[in-house]
Write a structure and sequence with these properties.
The chain starts with 7 loop residues before the first strand and ends with a helix. It has a 7-stranded mixed β-sheet with strand order 3-2-1-4-5-6-17, sandwiched between helices. A 7-stranded mixed β-sheet has the order 12-11-7-10-9-8-18. The longest helix is centred in the last third of the chain and has 20 residues. It is an alpha/beta fold. The structure holds nicotinamide-adenine-dinucleotide. The site of nicotinamide-adenine-dinucleotide (NAD) has 26 residues, from helix 1.
Length: 373
Amino acid sequence: MTKKKKEIGLAIVGCGTIGRIRGELARDYPGVGWIGLCDVKSDLGEKLKTDTDADFFTTDYKELLSRPEVTAVIIATDENYHMDPTLFAVERGLDLFIEKPLATNAVESKRILDAIEDAGVDAVVGYTQRFRRRFLAVKERLITGQVGDVTSVVARAFMNRMVPIATLARTQDRANLTPMVVSGTHSLDMCMWLMEGKSPVSVYAQSCDKALGKYGTKDGTFGVFTMDDGTIFSMNISWALPTVWPGSVYGIEVGIVGTEGIIDIEDTHRDLVLASEKAQGAGYAPEGFDPGAPRHVDFLTSYPPGDMHDDQLWGPMREETNSWFQRLYTGQSTPHATAADGHRNLMLTMAMDLSAREGKVISLPVTPEQLMA
Ligand SMILES: NC(=O)c1ccc[n+]([C@@H]2O[C@H](COP(=O)([O-])OP(=O)(O)OC[C@H]3O[C@@H](n4cnc5c(N)ncnc54)[C@H](O)[C@@H]3O)[C@@H](O)[C@H]2O)c1
């Protein structure tokens, strides 16, 4: 039976790199009837309005979210500014897509989650990698028990330092812009999703900051979680690889060991190498970011949202955005991370940072107040 289709009136708050990608996809989705945009930078927002033929632009998110046409919102402001527009959208009962992390402050994140759950709105968080065919194939094999009971999971994420340098340049408020909170959260979400049903009871982690300490962040954080059923989960990220590292953004390896099998995931993008006498740019380049050194070798497809062809983005962010539109338009079930998943991910990434700071094992769960103390 076909469900009744519900036309989408879409508001996008934040017209930077990610707001633009999602806005361009919205323009081409047949179920989106109206598009309104907001950014505090009017030049950026007006340009996106022209490029997507959007219906409305304002620098005031309250004005946008109060428009009668709006039924759903994408919160694509930078990491530190998700809370206010999100809470305003929840008050209006709008469906939400919130970019990760849910917030960079654990108390704010809990406030967002409570507001969403109290209001009963449908809210998802942008954990884009769930939409890759390879991870969906792994998830299906785990659900159907192909490796037996999972006993241990190991994840190693390597990132080019261009990404943290570009991210940190946007703000002076860097205390919570750590490798785990900003980027390790993607790998952690993936592992927690693949281990669905298990809850962590403790974590021990260590960090170092020799290369990126001067930017106000860590180079990397390595940690080990113990889950309630005894499963061990090793989550390691370094986001300080030199700018000339061929992976321009993100590469991971994940091993999932069970009582009757193993799934070994190589996702470093070393299988697609470009070498050129022409220098390659940055994989992630908000507003004119310059990598500072020529890069002649590139592992293609390491930019997590996808790749450009014919002025269009192809890859996981397209699948993620379009399937969110389908979720709204037809009511289809989708593998998006929920707001509860987003909050859990922030709490666990911050617990790793707390353990590294204090040099001791942290019992889980912790409260948001403990993390922010
Ligand atoms: N899922 C993914 O793969 C992925 C990849 C990159 C970034 N992200 C996330 O997407 C979000 C946005 O990142 P980005 O790279 O697009 O950042 P960006 O800096 O390019 O864009 C953010 C925009 O938000 C605007 N803004 C900030 N506060 C605002 C407010 N109160 N009202 C209106 N506009 C406001 C800024 O002016 C800026 O233009 C972040 O949370 C980031 O972590 C997700």
